[in-house]
Amino acid sequence: MDEYRTRVRIYAGVVVFLFLLLGLRLVQLQGFNGTSGDGTPPGSAVREQSVEPARGAMYARDSTLLVDNRPTYTILITPRYFDASKAPLLANLLGVADSTVRHRLREARERNAFRPTPSFREIPFDTFSRVQEHLYELPGVSYDVELRRRYHTAARAAHALGYVHEIDEQALSRMPASYRAGDRIGRTGLENAYESILRGDRGREMVLVNIHGTEVRKYQNGAMDTPPVGGHDLHLTLDHEVQALAESLFVGKRGAAVALDPDTGGILSLVSTPDFDPSLFARPVTTSAWDSLRSDPSDPLYNRATQSGYPPGSTWKPFMSLVALETGMLTASERMDCPSSYQIGRRAFKNHDEQDEGRITVAKALEVSCNTFFYQVMEDMSLATWHDWALEFGFGQEVPLEGFRQGSGLIPDSSYFDRVYGRWTDGYTINLGIGQGDMSVTPLQMARYAAALGNGGRLPTPHLIRKAVHPETDAVQRPKLPPPNPIPVDPSHFDVVQEGMHRVMTNGTGQWVQIPDIPSAGKTGTAQNPHGEDHSLFIMFAPYDDPEIALAVVVENAGYGATTAAPIASLMAEKYLTGSIADTWERRYWKRRLREEERSAPEEEPAPSTSPQTTPAVQATTQPAAPAPPDSSRPDGLSPTDRP
Asked: Strands 532-542, 521-529: parallel, antiparallel or unpaired by DSSP?
C-alpha cells in the first residue's frame, strides 16, 4: 500500500512539474508587456523577402533617356489566412465586384492555400494606397512592388534594345542559382546581351508577420536587411531621332536599315520591320497575346537587319570595281565596252532597256550602273578570287557584334556549285558580278561595307554600347572592341570607286535623293527575288569628302532601289548630319511618298529564314534611273517624267 502511494505522489509531482514548466514558458512568451525580449510582438514570425534591384537604364548617344523602370503594384492573397467576410471590403477598395475577389480567392486556393498568390496586378498607385491603409483589416492580404520597363521616346528600336520577359523553366535551368521562378530576364537585343550587368543584385528584407500572415513591421528595425544593388546604366551609340524617323519611313514595309559611324563603328540606327512594341512586355502578357505575336506571319520578332540574307544587286558593283583595280584586271583610266547585251554561250545577258553606253571607265560604269561591264569583269575573274575577296570585305561570315543572332549570308565557292549543281559553267557564276544569283548578304554586313567604302578601306567593328555606368558608384566600363579590320586594297583604288559613287548621286540613279547642300556618295540596287517583286537596296556615305555616317537600306519586294531604299537612307543621313529635314518640296515629297504610297508587295513565300540562299541564279536588271520628284508647277503634284 505504501508503495502504491509513493508511485501516485511521484506521478502527481511529475504532472505538477510539467504544468509549472508550461506555465512559466507561457509567461515568458507573453511577457509582462506583451512582447518578447527583442521587441517581437507575440505570435509573430520572421519572414525573409527578396527585394528586386532596379534594372539599369539605357540612354541614347545624346544622353536622352530611352528606357528606365516604373513601379507596378500587385495585391497578393494567402487563402489560408484570408477572411472571406472581408471580400466586400477588398472589392470596394480595389473598385471591382465582390464576385471578382471571390473568384481570385478560389484561384489562389487551387494553387496553394498557404502561399501568397498574385491576384490583382498593375494596380494604380491611388488604389494601392487605399488597400495599404486598410491592411490591418484584411488578414491574408499583402502586396508586392515590382519594376517594369518604361520607354520614353518615339523610337521603338525593338530589335536593338530587345525586351524583358518572365523567365521560363527551360531558361531557368541554364541560369545561375540567383535566378528564381517569376524573375524577369532580357530575352533579345541589348536586354539579353547585357543581362549580367543590367540586372543588378537582389536585396533581402526581414519582416515580422502575425498569425494571419500580415506584415507587422521590419525585423530588428532592418538591421539584418541587405539592400539591393541596381544594375549598370547603358549609354548607347543610337541616335533616337534618326531611329524614330527611319521607323516612320518603314511603315507598311518589310526590310531593314543599318546606319554606322564609319570611323568608330557605332550603330546610329538599326531598324527591322515588321517589328513589335517593346512596351507590350512591360505589362503582363497573356498567353493569347504571346501566341498571336509568335504566330504572326510577318514574324515581327525576327531581326532582318542581322539575320536575313538578300542578293545585294548593283550595290555589289563597287566591290567588283575595287577587286578589278587591285588585281590589275583594270586601271582607273582604262575603258571597256558597255554593250546593250553580253553573250555567254547561247544566252544573252542584257542591260536595262538594252542601253549601250559605249566604252567607259570604272567610275562611269558605277555612275550608269552598267551590267554588261561587270559581267565581263566577272567572266575574267576566277570564282576563287571573287570568293576570297568577298571574305576580306566581311561577307560570308558573322559580323563581330556580340549578343545578336546573325546570319552569315552566302558567298559560294566551287565546292558549293559542285554540291548544288554538279556540272556548272560561267553562266552559273556571271550573275555574281552584279550581286545576283547564288549569293546573299545581310543589311549589317552591307552597312559595314558602306562604311569601309567611305573611310578608305577599314572595316569597323559595329557596336551599340559606348559605356556602362554604375548609378551608385559612377564606375565606368567600356566595351573592348577589336580595331578596324584593314582591307588590303590600295587607297587610290578607293578614290576611284568613291568618285564613281559620288557621280551616282550627282548624275546617276541617286540624283533625286541628294541631301541639300551636303555632297554624298551612294549606290542603288534592284535585286531580283525568286519569291516575288524585286527588292529595293541602297548603300550610302556622307559627307562625301569626310564621311560621318554610312548606311545600308533594304526594302523587300518594293521595286527599284532609287524609289524606296535610296530616299529612306538619304532622309536618315540628313537627319543625322543636320538635326532636321529641309523644308523643300522635294524632301516633303519623299516623306509623303514613303509614308503613304511606297509599300512592300505581298510575299509569295514566308519571310526570309536564317538558312543561306540556295536558289538558282537568275538574271538581274540593271539599276534603273529614279523617278523625278513631282513638278511643283503642276497642281496635281505629279512628275512630268515619271520613268523607271
From this structure: antiparallel
